Amino acid sequence: EKGGYDYFMLKEIAEQPKAVADTLLGRVDASGSLTLDEVRIAPGALREVDKVVVVACGTAFHAGLIAKYAIEHWTRIPCEVELASEFRYRDPILDAQTLVIAISQSGETMDTLMALRHAREQGAKVLAVCNTNGSTIPRESDAVLYTHAGPEVAVASTKAFLTQLVACYLVALYLGQVRGTKWGDEIRAVVRDLSRIAEDVEQVLETMEPVRELARSLASKNTVLFLGRHVGYPVALEGALKLKELAYMHAEGFAAGELKHGPIALIEEDLPVVVVVPSPKGRSVLHDKIVSNIQEIRARGARTIVIAEEGDETVVPYADHLIRIPATPVLLQPLVATVPLQVFACELATARGNEVDQPRNLAKSVTVE
Ligand code: F6R
């Protein structure tokens, strides 16, 4: 049932191109417009939405953090992202014009369920992004957009995460389409890019051997740091979470701009630091700032592991290890940048003799608050 792989996690990492393609299937037409008929919230109600709040836990929360960039950019609706376990305890401001998006692979996470119940009690509309048909979270929501990752068995979430991103992009683009923002042309172009992104994920998977080798060489380390900016920041958080869960290592993700406000004090000789470099196009200011960050930490002894787009030559002199990913539109980069981090964590876990599919102390579905 592991399809020839040693672990479910490896199988599920390999299934990501298909999971991504399946999640897009039937939702995008040839002209680049979206048909999300299954989202049974009337377009009129979607036009009234004046705030989006995403609630989720763990990896799904990281998908939500990325969704915020897409939603705010393509719809101009303010979007908050909150850990489901914190949400209802802060007396959040919700009303009938609030769209709450609850993201959950299992559909059974109690923290997320309690958050959405609270939101509905306050009159908000809830859209679930979920991978499990008929589970509790979609049943209790006003609408659901299913991710089509197929069953995810390994405790550490991989293909579900990529499909959550796809679903969130679809929601953001659909909201933009329904509301007719000024980004119409860009939305159509991104929809077309999304249709090709599964091939990019496949391409990343084909080039992972050096990442596995690098992971094995770091098996005796205690700490790995992850840096990113913009959508690369949640990718850094996700890379760190995977490493904690699987390799039981101290791993932390930081927004690269925060380095100078504290974390740079952690940098010491030969400390592995993974840096997710934004696309050099579009957000070029951020790109240049991250390149300076790489120089700064390297000058202080860090071993830099740089994830950068093909063709980005500026990083070459400062990368002790360079991991290439295909160039994508700025907001879609997490779909390709996360994959090497999953492979990295899985291989490190194996090298440390850990149980990859069943990490200690964790359960696949957390049905207690
Ligand atoms: C991380 C992981 C967890 C889950 C979290 C939410 O690899 O698996 O952090 O993402 O427990 O679970 P769902 O998505 O089922 O609500």
TrEMBL record:
EC number(s) per entry: 2.6.1.16
Record domain SIS: where: 42-181, 214-359
Active site residues of this protein: K364
Keywords, comma-separated and alphabetical: Aminotransferase, Cytoplasm, Glutamine amidotransferase, Repeat, Transferase
GO MF terms held by the record: glutamine-fructose-6-phosphate transaminase (isomerizing) activity
Broad EC category: transferase
Reactions performed catalytically: D-fructose 6-phosphate + L-glutamine = D-glucosamine 6-phosphate + L-glutamate
Location within or outside the cell: Cytoplasm
Biological role: Catalyzes the first step in hexosamine metabolism, converting fructose-6P into glucosamine-6P using glutamine as a nitrogen source.
Subunit details: Homodimer.
Protein name: Glutamine--fructose-6-phosphate aminotransferase [isomerizing]
